[in-house]
Design a protein that fits this description.
Two copies of one chain form a homodimer.
Chain A: H1 12-26, E1 31-32, H2 38-41, E2 54-56, H3 61-74, E3 77-81, E4 99-103, E5 110-114, E6 119-123, H4 128-137, E7 140-141, H5 154-159, H6 167-170, H7 173-176, E8 177-183, E9 189-192, H8 206-209, E10 218-225, E11 227-228, E12 232-240, H9 243-256, E13 261-268, H10 269-278, E14 292-300, H11 307-320, E15 326-329, H12 333-344, H13 346-353, E16 355-358, H14 368-382, E17 387-393, E18 398-405, H15 412-432, H16 457-470
Helix pairs in contact in A: 1-3, 10-13, 14-15
């Protein structure tokens, strides 16, 4: 059987025959159907849900390879999945296609921790929190940090080039990858598990698979960088009049601390008010009201560095220079947690406040003030019924514009229309400022039809060429990132 | 005229007609032939020399585009070139092909310096030293540093993913690139000049062109990262018994200084002796003889950081821990220069000592001790007439193994055979240790037939697929990186 047209449904006997062959490779108990498959068939935001032919949970790279080879031979498409925590539906079953969902969670072995090389080789199913804990036990740090730290896995982190709060100092997930192992769309295994800091032998193939959202193959293992463990830190919250002052403060702090700015998160006054109203009852540590706040952390691996003193000196100078209105430095761990609690309560508080249309755009850091001014003005004019709040990563130019409609805005289609209108405004203004419509979440399924609106035809053509060069059979993760002819 | 077979020579009238059409695009004075073309037709090591049809020096991206379009239409291959300082013949005219050499040196405009975004947009013809000076005038640093700093250009730095001494702290050239503009093999311009720290909208296309050595298109401009300017530094030289102690020292210094190790260069006793014998007459600053030396620099943007004190404390502790035998800390700038002069004299001193076969391999940092032991032993056994010296970047696992034969080893073919024998041993041992045969210089023309020896068939297939997807006409830089069917 080799089905040339993926849109023709499998007959029942074809389906059973196929599933029997998959089960022979991975074992019956690792092939899930029906109720057992459901947890994998819905994304965690509950936005997408559709049944696959089955969910396969292979336990080795060789098994992934055999499963993919079988699918390729039979013309059955594959949706790769790791921790299933994606925000754009990149690991969900698309409409109109019968697919095998291949989840790599069982590839969760730590193959090697190489301390002199500051690297670890891990399976695609390893969970971020576990890797961070592992690094910690070896007196090292793995610096990627996201909200889904407890359940997201290496394969997904790599395939979505995950961002988060650590990008400011350590770069995106892409920068953490030294080597990769990938099962290609025809089932062959590409062993690119090198652990090198310098290697210029042909095109850097691993870069293709990082951020490809599973459309070019299935990442099965990776060599990741480790960093010295942090020994000291200091947390503060400051109040500012303008966003350009936040940028100036960041650059000055980076200079005088020698790059020890670990986190630098912006929050608008409107965002803080929502958090205080809906979530954090202990109030704001800041005495003064201000249009903008920054929550920041200085940290270092050097135990002799006086983080609090550096913070005091630097913020004192910033106050004198008129960069900031007010500052609160956490004097102990519980006060630091109180500050970070404001940041971590944003998502939940906004949900309580109303129907949320959130965005994940980025612009050049220098364009942040203009972008935020333009987007806020347009949203106020065109969507007067909505509240607008801002929060995010100043140093990455990645400030999330959150548009909150009243809970009673209407039914599902009214909500969809409102969200679409808000997204369109945010995307248009981002692109007008030289920005991106998806800074860290990827394209997945959610933005597949938006991508061509904001991307040149030359670039779309290059994207399609890359896809078809690596996956000519169009078997890998259909309906994600790109539509194909 | 559309020549399907590039190997059929052009007739004289075809040649003249073609050159006339190119001159119409770029102007007569920017089309060089004969004697005027020669400086571009020989690589700076004098290893490769062959005449092109002509050398074109377009002055704008649009002109590059028009030139490439014309070549594509007529089936004439192109060799892209920037500063012409490459070490593997990547920008030279191959045997058996009539090509147009397209040099981008005139694209030397600085388009924008964006300080709040810590970025600059520059043409592919900008010289590294000029960019470093420009950054400096803006209180910033551009951290890439190579021997050819005074003449290498952005287009070449990007196309070879240049390394150098800054990789330890700042990463390779790849990590400095935020955005790219590329003229594709059919003449279309891909404008990827984004200046974003986070952007997950489809495959990261710029990664394809970084390190592609001009085989996928011509880089015409780039957005590059800037860093805070260094304000303080301290230099030292230490003596060690073993390479694993050098690695342990590096990791400890990175930890206690919070990543402020700017340079960390290894040198073998044999290498130091050659330098003292042939080059540096002022002697070594070290009292003790030891198998290995490290020359290192701590540096920071924070003017308040006491670099010398940190160096003293850290090296004092390393001495107590038995990691190092002896240390000399430069007490002033001239003493620091005396130390670095040892490092900078290596290349010239080795040339005086004999016929040099140098290598550019890398291994995982943890494998350096084993690699150096194995390769030194094999070279001593199999090439007893040669001296062996080691120098390079410990933190990148990129230690250059330098094999020096007596000056009177024989004629050109005897030298070629000796170099080949040395290279083969070094490459085999590198790959056996999980390493690369070209850490920072690229494949170019020199290693094109070696690459498949050390690369899996799966990987070679992927490399060819990428090449043919972007350059189906095989017009860009023939005879470099990959042989095509």
């Amino acid at each position: 059987m080799n089905r040339k047209d993926c849109c023709v449904p499998l007959s029942e006997s074809e389906r059973l025959n196929f599933l029997r062959a998959i089960a022979e490779i991975i074992g019956d108990k690792n092939l899930r159907t029906g109720v057992d498959a459901e947890p994998y068939e819905q994304d965690w935001r509950g936005r997408y849900q559709r049944a696959a032919l089955a969910v396969a949970l292979p336990g080795s790279t060789e098994d992934v390879s055999a499963v993919v080879r079988l699918c390729a031979e039979r013309g059955i498409a594959i949706v790769p999945q790791a921790g299933n925590t994606g925000l754009t539906g990149g690991a969900t079953v698309p409409e109109g296609a019968e697919v095998l969902l291949v989840n790599v969670s069982r590839l969760n072995k730590v193959h090697r921790v190489d301390l002199p090389n500051n690297a670890m080789t891990v399976g695609a199913g390893c969970i971020l929190a576990d890797m961070r804990a592992l690094a910690d036990t070896h007196d090292r740090q793995f610096p990627v940090m996201l909200g889904s730290v407890g359940s997201c896995e290496v394969g997904g982190l790599i395939s979505t080039n995950a961002g988060g709060t650590g990008v400011l100092r350590y770069g995106n997930m892409r920068e953490q990858v030294l080597g990769l192992e990938v099962v290609l769309p025809d089932g062959r295994i590409w062993n690119g598990l090198k652990a090198l800091r310098k290697d210029n032998t042909g095109y850097d193939l691993k870069q293709l698979f990082v951020g490809a959202e599973g459309t070019l193959g299935i990442v099965t293992a990776a060599v990741l960088k480790l960093y010295p463990k942090l020994a000291v830190s200091a947390t503060a919250m400051v109040a500012l009049e303008r966003v350009d002052q936040a940028i100036a403060l960041l650059r000055e702090l980076q200079r005088v601390t020698g790059g020890r700015v670990e986190t630098f998160e912006l929050m608008s006054q409107s965002q803080l008010q929502i958090v205080l109203r809906q979530g954090v009852t202990s109030g704001s540590p800041m005495a003064a009201d201000a249009p903008w706040y920054v929550l920041l952390e200085l940290a270092d691996s050097s135990p002799d560095w006086n983080a609090s003193e550096s913070m005091e000196t630097a913020l004192g100078a910033a106050m004198e220079d008129g960069l900031i209105i007010d500052a609160v430095i956490a004097s102990d761990q519980s006060k630091a947690e109180r500050i970070w609690n404001l940041r971590h309560s944003i998502s939940e508080s906004c949900k309580r406040e109303g129907f949320v249309a959130s965005n994940d755009t980025s612009v050049p850091v220098s364009a942040l003030p203009e972008f935020l001014e333009r987007v806020t003005l347009r949203l106020a004019n065109e969507l007067p019924q909505a509240q607008v709040a801002h929060c995010g990563h100043v140093g990455d130019g990645n400030v999330h514009v959150i548009v909150i409609f009243p809970h009673d805005i209407g039914d599902a289609s009214a909500r969809e229309a409102a969200a679409h209108q808000a997204n369109t405004i945010v995307h248009q203004e981002s692109v007008a400022c030289g920005g991106s419509i998806s800074a860290e979440h990827g394209i997945g399924r959610m933005h597949i039809d938006r991508l061509p609106l904001y991307t040149s035809e030359v670039e779309m053509d290059l994207l399609r060429r890359v896809k078809l060069a690596i996956d000519p059979g169009k078997i890998m993760n259909p309906g994600k990132v790109l539509r194909l002819p």
